[in-house]
């Protein structure tokens, strides 16, 4: 597992622009060898600095399986083409709510009890939240094609559903009805 410098040569020779990698430790400097990545799946439970990820300005899809703590600052404004994001929530990711190009967002352990901050994402069509706080309102989020709520507490009190094509709910033990 992990990175070898020869991988960058293979990726360039084959025109590969997506990388899925598990990293032990916290060194992400190897990402400088693949600056043209369009997609990255990063499994890095020990990482403490995401500046190497932020330098990948051409990313269109990004999956961040990184720690929830400590705070890992990442400026999502650097990713102008970012359309698809899957991530474990981290307090350093607040700027995601300004990434207007996002079309699909999956957040594990989202921080809010409502969806008002997601309303600032005008292109968002697919929103999935897993194991978050006690979600009580979807107010503020724009029309969505798909809303997924997985293992969310408090759905028995859920109100203000947005215009949807698909609502997916899993493991909602106390949910009896939706108005």
Which keywords apply here?
mainly beta, 2 helices, 8-stranded parallel sheet
Question: What would you say about this model in short?
Answer:
With 179 residues, the protein is mainly beta.
Helical fraction equals: under 10%
Tally of separate helices = 2
- Termini separation comes to 49 Å
Instruction: Give the spatial strand order of the biggest sheet.
Output: 1-2-3-4-5-6-7-8
Give me the Rg, rounded.
Answer: 17 Å
Uncertain stretches of 5 or more adjacent residues: none
> Helices and strands: which structural class?
mainly beta
How would you sum up the major sheet?
8 strands, parallel
β content, as a range? 15-25%
Task: Determine the mean pLDDT.
Answer: 89
Description of the molecule:
The structure is a single chain. By secondary structure, this protein is mostly beta strands. Helices cover 7% and strands 22% of the residues. It is built from 2 helices and 8 strands; from the N terminus they run H-E-E-H-E-E-E-E-E-E. It is elongated and about 55 Å long. The model has no long low-confidence stretch (mean pLDDT 89).
Task: Chart the SSEs and their pairings.
Layout: H1 6-14, E1 18-22, E2 39-43, H2 51-54, E3 61-65, E4 84-88, E5 104-108, E6 126-130, E7 146-150, E8 166-170
Parallel strand pairs: 1-2, 2-3, 3-4, 4-5, 5-6, 6-7, 7-8
């Amino acid at each position: 597992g992990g990175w070898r410098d020869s991988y960058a040569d293979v990726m360039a020779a084959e025109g590969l622009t997506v990388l899925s990698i598990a990293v032990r430790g916290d060194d992400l400097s190897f990402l400088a060898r693949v600056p043209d990545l369009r997609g990255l799946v990063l499994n890095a439970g020990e990482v403490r600095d995401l500046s190497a990820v932020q330098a990948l300005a051409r990313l269109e899809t990004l999956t961040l399986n990184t720690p929830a703590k400590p705070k890992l600052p990442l400026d999502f404004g650097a990713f102008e083409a970012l359309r698809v994001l899957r991530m474990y929530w981290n307090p350093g990711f607040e700027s995601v709510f300004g990434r207007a190009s996002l079309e699909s967002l999956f957040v594990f352990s989202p921080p809010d009890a409502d969806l008002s901050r997601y309303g600032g994402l005008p292109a968002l069509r697919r929103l999935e939240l897993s194991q978050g706080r006690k979600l009580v309102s979807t107010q503020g989020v724009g029309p969505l094609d798909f809303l997924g709520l997985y293992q969310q507490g408090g759905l028995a009190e859920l109100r203000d559903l947005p215009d949807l094509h698909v609502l997916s709910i899993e493991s909602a033990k106390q949910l009896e009805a939706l108005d």
